[in-house]
Amino acid sequence: MKYKFSTSLAAFCFLIFSGSVLAQFDVPVQTDSAMAYLKILTDPDTFQGRKTGIESGNQSQRWIANRFNEWGLKPLFGNDTYVEYEQLVTDEIEASMTIYDTPWGKIEFLLGDDFTLNTNSGSGNIKAPVTFIGYGVNEPEMGWDDYNGVDVEGHVVVIHRGSPPNDEDWSEYMSRSYKLNKAVEHGAVAVLFKDHRAFPIDGAAMNVDAYHEDIPSAYIGERVVNHLLYGTHLMYSEYKKKMKEGPFPLTSPQELRIKARVKRIEPGIGYNVVGVVPGTDKNLKKEAIIIGAHGDHVGPDALGHVWVGADDNGSGTCVIMEMARVFAQNPQPRTLIFCLFGGEEQGLLGSEDLAPKMPDTYEYINMVNMDMAGRGDGVFGLGGADQFPEVWEWWWSELPDSIKDNYEANRAWGGHSSDHAPFKEVGIPAFTTYSKGDHSFYHRMEDRFETIHKAAIGGAVTGASRWVAGIASFPEKMADRHIKARSVWHRGAALAHFNSGDDVAADIKKAKNHLADGYMGSVITLRQQAKNVHDWGLMIYLDKWRDLTENEENVTIAGKLSDLGGNSYKRTSSVFLAMPIDSFASGDTLWWDVIQQNGIHWAVMEDATAWISGSEVREDKKALLEHLNETETVVQIPLATLSDWMPLSEILGEKLVAMGSWTEFSTITDDQIKQFSDNGCNFALTVAMDEVPDVLQNIDSVSDYALHLQPAVYGYEESLKWMESFQGAEVESKLLLKWIGDNLKKW
Are strands 380-383 and 430-435 parallel, antiparallel or unpaired? Predict the structure, then answer.
């Protein structure tokens, strides 16, 4: 049963519950108060950039904890809001980088402008040759090995951030830690990183697994790269093009001297600040909302330059502080837990320590994270409202139209780049919030109090407090509403499938309903229209689709699967119009081009005899099949008759997808599955609740294939229960996310 919550009933209940909807939303936060905290936090002489683990950084957290205590927030742990945890801590003492024997003689590069040491770099004093090693990937079984036949023993290695441009999933091999460790395994004496920015960011951290005390690591900017490439007869732009064509190691004619002295501080101790505002309603106070931001930045460099991090994330810190102050005076029906995390800039260390330790005193229904709220004109961005459609629709309907333009609502963020991530990994739906603007001073020394926009702080503190007040006072219990399942389901990209009707508007409404259920796309098969596919009436029908979706905020006609809303994209249903094409002839390639230009990029094949004769592809269809492949059309076939379609797999490869039920998949032989998969083809399976035990029983073999799985029955509650059936069997979120979205994106 899908959750239905009447807006009028919600408003009525809430008015009884709290007295006034808008009064409850508009808690009296003050922009000037938040700005005052920010000015103190970003004073370079007071807290010196708030680096976790060094004395000045820990003192900034102590200062925040003292404010929490003054405002009456209660400790969540023990007797103090200042919560200790262990982490790797290093302090940068000396850093220089010099190149010799250039046409301009010796060149000394500038720390902070030409290069920056990575946080937790090792120490060293080396002069060595330099080898560009592409992406720094060493995975030959995945079709890419930048180290093949290359000797980098005793070399400085330059690695470009990013992933090889083939069709493999490189998500596990893109971290700095992986790439640095691979370079060290191959004998590198220092590792330099280059990304898409012209300048080197400061504060890029190596985690404890990639800490090598005698291996310096740093980021470099384009000036360093261009000097190292001098004499290779390649510009940096040319090298990047060659690197994308295949592994392209390149040794510089110059040698580089790197001096780095980094002191490890032991024991390494960081601090989170955690304070509680107890709830006021006897039925809801056990439900808790976590509101947080990281309080740290990257501190001083070896020359004493202080990177104060006003936007990242003094801005989020001051907003959370002001909310903590005001909500302590205006407690809500639900409990509020305010957190300022340490160690975010060193790898989410504070939040990763805290999330699994949250005590069972409360049932945690939501985490709201604030990161970078200091730039822009006051528009507040909130990613994650789709995880609580019943709350969002009620809350949004109660806001005056005059302020709705101050909000940008996005999908649940799926990444791992900020402190919401550890909470969603323990099953708490996590929101990420920010100010909409140009955060142009990200990890630059110019990220100072003077570059903060007061309007952005005002929009963030007002917007965030309104949302927290809304979810904190929602009048129905949330803890039993499949909370853990929401944290995964809304990061997927499930597809709803149905046949078109006579009424385009009704089909659009149906797609929007499926969007509310968490299905990010709808595949609508135009079965009626396909009966007269060469009739220009089809074009009139498609024109109506375009006309009706042109002004729709929540529905768009999609061209490729990459159009599906992923991570932080707007909550939009991507509609794929699918055309049955068994009646197409080989000469219909031009007609397919016309159809595709009018919005159809999905072809449905149902009768194998229309395409295959015996065990061979019909000669009169080969040209059309090759054209479908060239035009990147998704081609759908029925899973139940997979063996009849095998000859197509070699022609269409990754564009071919067999769709059907788990029961149908279970009847296919291992050899057929392997042949289909080896040709790059895909499976999309629906799994009924009574089929879940069979999937779990075969989970090892299932995990070997890039399957897309989703519930057999649509509906929000049904889908969440389906997700819970896997979570109850302790299937890892990472695998579930592959099943419900990541594998689909490879088509």
Answer: antiparallel
Mean pLDDT along residues 121-131: 98
pTM of the model: 0.89
Cβ(409)–Cβ(565) below 8 Å:
no
Q: What contacts 199, CB < 8 A, 6 or more positions away?
A: 113, 221, 222, 444
Residues 6+ apart with CB under 8 A from 517: 2, 496, 714, 715, 716, 719
Residue 29 near residue 462, CB atoms below 8 Å: yes
Beta bridge partners of 598: none
- Give CA 604 to chain center in angstroms: 32
Answer whether 249's CB lies under 8 Å from 150's CB. Answer: yes
Place of tokens 């800490």: 211
User: Is the separation of the CB atoms in 336 and 276 below 8 Å?
Assistant: yes
Provide the pLDDT for residue 565.
62
Which is it for the CA torsion 141, 144, 146, 150, positive or negative? positive
Question: Is residue 480 exposed (0-12), middle (13-18) or buried (19+ Cβ within 10 Å)?
Answer: exposed
Q: How far apart are CA 702 and CA 681, in angstroms?
A: 15
Check: CB of residue 100 under 8 Å from CB of residue 128.
no
What is the predicted pLDDT for the residue at 415? Answer: 62
Closest among 62, 100, 99 to 82, alpha carbons compared = 62
- Could you tell me the two tokens for 572? 């939009």
Question: What's the 3-state SS for 151-173?
Answer: CCCCCEEEEECCCCCCCCCCHHH
Most confident of 1-15, 544-558, 599-613: 599-613
| Beta strands 363-370; 144-145: pairing state | unpaired
Token pair of 674 as six digits: 């392997």
Mean pLDDT of 400-426: 85
Residue type, 114: D
3-state SS class at 284: coil
What amino acid is encoded at 404 in this protein?
K
Tokens describing residue 9:
């009933």
Quickly state the pLDDT bin for 702 (edges 50, 70, 90).
confident
Q: Which amino acid is at 626?
A: E
- The tokens describing 499, both together, are 């046949």
Q: Return phi, psi of residue 474, to 5°.
A: -55, 125
Instruction: Round to whole Å and give the CA distance between 270 and 386.
Output: 34
Which residues neighbour 549 within 8 Å (Cβ) at sequence distance 6 or greater?
Answer: 508, 555, 556, 557, 575
Q: How far apart are alpha carbons 136 and 163 in whole angstroms?
A: 9
Do residues 365 and 429 make contact, with C-beta atoms less than 8 angstroms apart?
A: yes
Q: Name beta bridge partners: 251.
A: 131
Rounded Cα distance, 37 and 310, in Å: 11
Nearest C-alpha neighbor of 290 from the set 354, 343, 342: 354
User: Which of 284, 512, 473 has the alpha carbon at shortest distance from 394?
Assistant: 473
Quote the CA–CA distance of 618 and 614 in Å, as a whole number: 9
What was the pLDDT predicted at 24? 61
